[in-house]
Every structure is written in C-alpha cells, then in structure tokens.
Amino acid sequence: MAVIGELIKKAIDFTGMIMSDPDPVKAQKKVLENLLETARLTAFGKAYHFTEILESEDIVAAFQSKVPVHDYDKMHAEWWHYLLEGHQNVTWPGGQNYFALSSGTTSNSKHIPVTDAMLESIRKAGIQEIASLSAFNLPGDFFTKQILMLGSSTSLIEKDDHKEGEISGISASNLPTWFGGIYKPGREIADIPDWDERVKRIAEEAPKWDIGCISGIPAWIELMLKEIISYHKLSNIHEIWPSLMVYTTGGVAFEPYKKSLEQLLAHPLIYIDTYLASEGFIAIQKRPDTTSMALFPDNGIFYEFVPFDGDHVDENGLVKPGAKVFSLADAEEDKEYVLLISTVSGAWRYMIGDTVTITDKARAEIKITGRTKHFLNVVGSQLSVNQMNDALRVLEKEYDTVMKEFIVAAVHRNDEYIHKWYISCDKSLDKVQVAEALDKTLKENNKNYNVARTRALKGVEVELVPEEIFYKWSEETKKLGGQVKIPRVMKEEDFLEFAAFAEKNL
C-alpha cells in the first residue's frame, strides 16, 4: 500500500505542477466576462443590461455602476423567490435541481440556488484542494487512507422540481464515483437525518475505517471524536485511527477549539483551513507556512470588497448605498472588507456576510476576520469577532482554562447599555474577575471600545456556563449538525431568549 501511496502522491505532485495558479486579476476579469455572457439573456441579465456592460471598455466599472449590491433578503425578495415557484432563467440560465438551506446566522431559512455549474465549480475546487496537499509534505502512505467528512445529512428534502438540504449534504450527495471508495462515513450513514443517530453510527463503525483526514466544523468534529472515544473506552482518537494526520477545518475560527481538540489526540494534526459557504467554495489554504486561504480566481466566482467601516456599512451590517466597492485589482492588503461575490449560481454582487482581509494580493490570499452581523457596535464599541476571540485566548492563558463558545449582546440596564457575555468554561472561576479581565483586555486592544466604556457602554457582565449549554440550545432550536455555527453576537431580544434557556438548563 505504501508503494501505491507514493504513486498517488507523485500523481498529485504532477497535477499540482500542471495546475499552476493563474494571474488573479486577469483571471477575475475573464470570470466576470463569462458570468455576464452566460447570464445576459436571463431576466436579471436583461434588467441590468448585461449585453451593454459586455460592450463597455471597462466591464468591471460598468458592472459595478449598473448592478446594485444585494444581501440575501433583497436577492430573494426581488429574484430568487421566482425560482422556488418553478420559474426558470431568472438569475442564471435554466432552473435549479438543488437549493441550499443555509444554517448560517445572518438570516433565517435561506434558500440559495445551487446550479449544475456551481456543483462543477465545487468539484473543481475540491480537486485543487487535493492537489494542494503536495505542499504539506505528507508521507505517501497518507494517500491510501480514508477521509471522514462530517457534514449535514445527504438525505435531501424532495420537492416537486428540486431537492433541498445544506450545502455539505448536497455536495456529498454529488461526489464523483471515484471518491466513493475513500469517503466516510459513506452514503448509508450520511443519509441519516438525525444528528445524534448519525454520530452514534459513526462511533459504531469507526474501528472498520482507516482514517487519515477528517473534515468539518470544529465544534461538531470535537463532539464526534468524544463520542467515538467514549463508545470504545479510548484514551485518544489515535488509538483507533493511528493514521489520522490531517484536519481540514472551516466555517468558523479554529483557534478557540484547538486546545480542547488536541486533548483528544495522541499528537497534533496538520490543520488546513477551507472556506466552503452555502453560496460556493470560496477559498482554501494552499501552503503550510500561512493560515491564509487562497481564493479561486478562475472558478466561477467574481470577488469584490467593500471597506468595513462606518462610512460604507450600516449598524445592521449592510452595505450602504453608494459605498465604494473594489475588485481584487484595486483592493489593498491588510484592510478589512465585506466580501461580495457574483457566481455561477446566479448570485450577483451578493453580500455573503463575512468580513475578510487580503493578506497576499499576488497570491489572492485572504483571512476571514468575522461576520458583518457579528460586529458589536450598538454603542460605538466596534468589536469584531476576531477581537473577541483574541480576548478570550488571553483569558484562557491567564486562567489556564478553555473558553470555546460564547455569545454576547448589548443589553439594557435601565436606560443604559452593558455588554452581557455567556462564555463556556471548563473551570469554576469568579465571573466578576473574569468580566474585569475581559474588559481590561478589550480596552487595551480596541481604542473604540475603550472610548465607548467611558461613555455609553456602562459595564460588562459575564456568565460562565458549560459548553453543553450552547449545543443543547442549538439542538432545541433545530440547529444541531455538521454545518451549523453558534452565533457570536445577538440582538437583545434573541439574546434574552438564549439567556433564559441557559439559566433554565444550568
């Protein structure tokens, strides 16, 4: 098997050599041209004069001047609802066989069209991801092992003219035949709709598999590994999967989970970040000497960037009318942007809900910095999720504890505002001292927060709870599963409902 693995590795190395990265700026212009040409006779293309845009000297500028920025609610209300009613040629030629049900946190009950062209784009991105493994200096034997992909159920909801499910389930149900031999847990188990039953079956079957790579959102991967370890009375997961070397993570920041995840391992893994959203496969980490991810400049997605500040984004996390928008050619490194995408699924100048920084423009590499609606700015504190995560890492070190999950909101205390936090913690700590330490760290690292604390933001309160509270709440609200993310910032009304649930279940 080692010999076969070396042959596969050499084939992947060769594939990586012939799949050289294109010039990102030139590739992006070509992608936009192809998108506009393909969709010019759709209802959307006619409404926004795609044919005229294609005849312009500068199609990027013409595209940006004629087509407005959309969030999901605007896209659905004006266009995508027709697709759900059975109409075709609305925002992309033909109809849709699939709709992705987003379990994201920016809007409820999203139905995002997934075209055949998008599925092909995702497959192409997956091939590039495999080819990129050659950069991580993995042994040849690794390439004979199996991959466990913990996503949503592949048992999709059948409608009259389409199927519905989360994007990981749709993607897994469309895996190429050649991938079936190495994909686990396999379709039989992946089809199980109930999350707990699916994980139980994975635990039962785990000894039969030789897993080299696991893939999924950190919180649910950790729960799965704990279930396997408990079921088989193991000390760590490597006792049953000694070949496990790689974890491809994504969906949320991995750093908060790293410490607790590694307690389940005999040795650390190679961690590779990915960016697969309901709207498409956005980026992958291509090299080991960075945690940044490379966009796919030539794979059916046109990227745009809106400065993430008060001049361009409102307090609801929406792009303001008339905001400056930059293509990859004009965007700058190390500035925070709201990401917009136009895709082969008929999303146009679509605000995906994430904020990013460009870390290496020549390589088209980015880092996700947070969510547009996970930005706490009710009283001018301007706290991003990244800054919140960084502050909790400081507390973890100070108190030698693990703080993976949290939810925060600005809530009223009489006529004033405070920040109220619920934080998971594996130790019994003084919550007042933790609140003071958290407040001090945020003041030191965010000047806007520091100013807010002298004015409208009158205090900080912390409740320390077991992490199971967050997962129980997720299950109660029908948000338990491989692709589901715990929201970090809530509006006050939603937060008070969560707080009541937490207090009831303590």
Automatic annotation (TrEMBL):
It comes from the Bacteria. GO terms for molecular function: acid-amino acid ligase activity. InterPro entries: GH3, GH3_C, GH3_M. GO terms for cellular component: cytoplasm. Residues 390-493 form the GH3 C-terminal domain. Pfam families: GH3, GH3_C, GH3_M. Residues 298-361 form the GH3 middle domain. This is GH3 auxin-responsive promoter family protein. It comes from Dyadobacter sediminis.
